[in-house]
Amino acid sequence: MNGTRVKGGATMRARRLRASLKGWGGVAAMAVVCALVAVFALYVPLSGTRTVDGQSVAQSARVKAEKAEEDCEAPEKQTLSPSSADGDTIQKIKNRQGDMRKLIVGVDQNSYRWGYRNPNSGKTAELEGFDIDLVHRIAEDILGDPRAVQFKAIPTDQRIPAIQDGRVDMVVRTMTINCERIDDVAFSAPYFKTGQQVLAPKSSPIKGYDDTLAGKRICTATGSTAYSTLKADQKAGELPATADISKTVPNQLDCLVRLQLGEVDAVVTDGALAASQAAQDPTVELKGDAFTAEYYGVAMKKSANDLVRRVNQILVDYRKDTANGWQASYGKWLSATLGKISEKSEPPAPQYLRTT
Amino acid sequence: MPTLPAVPAQPAPPAPPAQAPRGPAEPQPRRTAFAEGLDQLRAAATTEPGRLRIIGALLALLVVAFGAVTAWQMTDRAAAADDVLTRSQPLSSDAADIYRSLADANTAASSGFLAGGQESAASRDRYEKDIRTAAEKLVNAAANSDPDSPSAATIAKLNRLLPEYKGLVERARTYNRQGFPVGGAYLRYANEKMQEEMLPAAEDLYKKENQRLSADYGDATPYPWAAIALGIAALAALAWAQHRNYQRTNRVLNHGLVAATATATVVLLWLVVGHSVARAGLNDSYDHGVRSLNVLHDARIASLKARGNENLTLVARGAETKKVGEETYDAYDYDFRTDIDALGKYLAAAGELADDASGESPVTAAVGNMTEWKKRHTAARDQDEKGNYQEALKRVIGSENATGECFDSVDENLRTALAHEETEFKRAAGDGRDALTGLSAGAAVLAVLGAAGAVLGIGRRLSEYR
Question: Closest Cα of chain B to A179: distance in Å?
Fold first, then answer.
């Protein structure tokens, strides 16, 4: 599963409350019901009329989430402790000669205020945004020049292959730290907190991540946490089976295009990015609260321990730096779309549970 | 009054016996007109006048048949030759232009985006002009296609997609002006529609129009064997009739038959020579026109694809890679290299096909432009590999010494070469078609005259028996 579930829509909250009131006494009975539901879900093909009614279904999803958490607890804490020491990876980057002496970073060029080319920013329209600021900070720290960066624009589903193939040194691209991904790449400590949210036209009957999505077409980016969450939830019965989640696109912003053209009814993406989309179209809005808690991290090669430690050190300094650090970048890029107060977006104090 | 009773009595008695013998004859099967005619013919064949009548009829029939078949076969060929010149070749060129305009419009739109900032007036004009050309040529293609043909379906599809595409680009422009990256997303969507739906449809249309052109050539060039065979048969029959006449009467010349022989000879010669000239002209127009035009169109399309991929290399910024064997390449740059190699091959082929200096010089110039393009492309890629994205961008879409200049020059030279080859084609195919002018009508008139001559000639002999 991807991140911990916090609060959902009003209906879901009520459902969960009722479920928890059953207390320990009902656990055994509940387990039997869960098993039955699992059999039902596995062997009976999802018919179009099945609703998410009944606590047993919600309960089953919760059991599943808990099970996933057993396998991988708090993925955002599975990182190495900070250190400024140079290791093999950093040395290799520093050894690059002449024009090539640059940090190669995978970024997005389509996320408004995160990483994008502003056509009105000047003649060259270079990349800018919250992620880009962080990249410049990392380059300054490692290579002594904030501009010593080679940007590569990476589609959502290419982030992990790009790191594994060594095409980039790191990916700074609104990338959620989750259990699946920490098997493939190493993450830094979290630098931003967000959660999946629903985006739909203001006039739409969709109210949030709930039954109002029944029969609606939902767009997500290929290889995104949004897609894997929807898929898992639909399997678990948390999301109405009639919701059509088949539409996937290379980038979350392509979803806004499909939404405006009426090819889909709603978009699910990280709240931070959904807010960026809403900022580009006044006729759409975020529906309901975030239904997951997720953290963005800088992704690096699994073996690049020295680089992970270094980036964690940079992040500690970056968050402490009030004049020219995290807070300043938030104020510059995100306060307009996510609100003046950054508290909701600040990740908790980092923990470094990974040792090797 | 004594005769009075006898008068009414007389007609009455002979009437029944007169009818009586007819009665038993009726059950006999009626003889068909054909059988009677055959009998008459058999009877006639036993006398010389009868034989002459038969010979005259057969001669007239042969000559008329020769004229009719000639007129029919040559009408078909002339129509096909006219189609080659005025319909299928222009449509095949139009289809190539549709492809070119669409691909160029897409490249112009994406270059505008690549440049960052707002699009320049030049790139906007180029885009608008391309869209206009595509729309005009589509209308022309639609007017010239059969309503139920597969090309009509393809044209309808393109007509439906063009406004959709334009709508997406307009939205991209609007958002771009507001500084929102969703403009870029619209452009990507437009690009996807172009690459995955419109260009394949345009390529399909081009192929279909080319097939039609080949079919028209196929209809125009085969020898009219039926007409030639009938012509030879008619001449042989006329010769035989005159030889027979000579043997029987010792007279050498029969004016009517000589006139018939002369007209049939003229028709046969006209047929063979006219068709051979037309065939030569059409074959020439194919070898030196259509083949050159096809290769040049292919070269133009390859250069457009190369330019599109060169731009996409910078748009994608290394996002997509392709593994070939052990090596990993940037997917778009790999495609660029494939396209530019294809361009080189087509240009070499076009150079070989060009048969005069004015056809060869633009091709040679295009080869030079391509060489320079490759050189500048390598330098731009080198900058991009080093992480100097802005420098690479400048070398690809900049206003000075950029690869865009080379692409434009290649395109311009290919346009010149195409215009030249088109003139060549029109001249050769026009000569071919003109060689058939009047042949059908002439053959028909001459055949009627020839048949009349044969009948008159035989009639003159026949009159000696009266």
Answer: 24
Instruction: Fill in the amino acid letter for B223.
Output: Y
**What pLDDT does B398 receive?**
83
pLDDT one-digit tens code per residue, B115-154? 666 777 888 899 999 999 999 999 999 988 888 888 899 9
Element at A27 (helix H, strand E): helix A27-43
Kind of pairing between the strands at A103-107 and A127-128:
unpaired
With 0-12 / 13-18 / 19 or more C-beta atoms within 10 angstroms meaning exposed / middle / buried, residue A95 is exposed
A73-93 pLDDT, tens digit each: 789 999 999 999 999 999 999
Query: What is the enclosing helix (H) or strand (E) of B324?
Result: strand B321-324
What is the dotted CATH code of the domain comprising A10-71+196-287?
3.40.190.10
Q: Using the predicted structure, report yes or no on whether residue A104 has a pLDDT greater than 90.
A: yes
Q: What are A259's two structure tokens? A: 């939404």
Q: Which residues of B touch A (CB under 8 A)?
A: 115-118, 171, 175-186, 188-189, 315-321, 328, 386-390, 393
User: What's the predicted TM-score (pTM) here?
Assistant: 0.76
- pLDDT over threshold 50, residue A47: no
Least-confidence region, from A177-186, A251-260, A334-343, B5-14:
B5-14
- Whether residue B289 contacts residue B217, with contact meaning beta carbons closer than 8 Å, is answered with no
Question: Rounded distance, CA B283 to CA B290, Å?
Answer: 10
**With an 8 Å Cβ cutoff, are B175 and A99 in contact?**
no
Residue to mutate among B195, B317, B333, B399, with most A CBs inside 10 A, is: B317
Name chain B contacts of A166, Cβ cutoff 8 Å.
none
Start-end ranges of CATH 3.40.190.10 in chain A? 10-71+196-287, 76-192+294-345
CATH fold label, A76-192+294-345? D-Maltodextrin-Binding Protein; domain 2 (3.40.190)
- The two three-digit tokens of residue B369, written as one number: 């432009």
Contact between chains at A110 and B185 (C-beta distance less than 8 A): yes
* A294, β-bridge pairs: A194
Contacts of B322 (CB under 8 A, 6+ apart): B328, B329, B330, B331, B334
The count of other CB atoms within 10 Å of the CB of residue B86 is 15
User: Two tokens at A285?
Assistant: 């809005």
Q: Three-state SS string across A219-283, please? A: EEECCCHHHHHHHHHHHHCCCCCCCEEEEEECCHHHHHHHHHCCCCCEEEEEHHHHHHHHHHCCC
* Cβ B414 vs Cβ B302: under 8 Å: no
Q: Are strands A266-270 and B321-324 parallel, antiparallel or unpaired?
A: unpaired
Contacts of B389 in chain A (CB under 8 A): 150-151
Token pair for B404: 């865009």
How far apart CA B216 and CA B85 sit, in angstroms, is 10
Q: Which residues of B52-76 are buried (b: 16+ CB within 10 A; e: fewer)?
A: bbebbeebbebbbbbbbbbbbbbbe
Give the dihedral sign, CA A261/A266/A270/A272.
Answer: positive
Neighbours of B465 (CB within 10 A): 10
Q: Provide, as residue numbers in chain A, all residues whose Cβ is less than 8 Å from the Cβ of B390.
A: 124, 126
At B146, give phi and psi (nearest 5°). -70, 135
Q: Which two tokens stand for residue B406?
A: 């080379």
Q: Spell out, as residue ranges, where chain B has pLDDT lower than 50.
A: 1-25
| ipTM, two decimals | 0.74
Rg of chain B over CA atoms, in angstroms? 38
Map residue A350 onto helix, strand or coil. Answer: coil
- Kindly tell me the burial class for residue A332, based on how many C-beta atoms sit within 10 Å of its own C-beta (0-12, 13-18, 19 or more): middle
How would you classify the pairing of strands A115-117 and A127-128? antiparallel
Residues of B in contact with A251 (CB under 8 A): 185
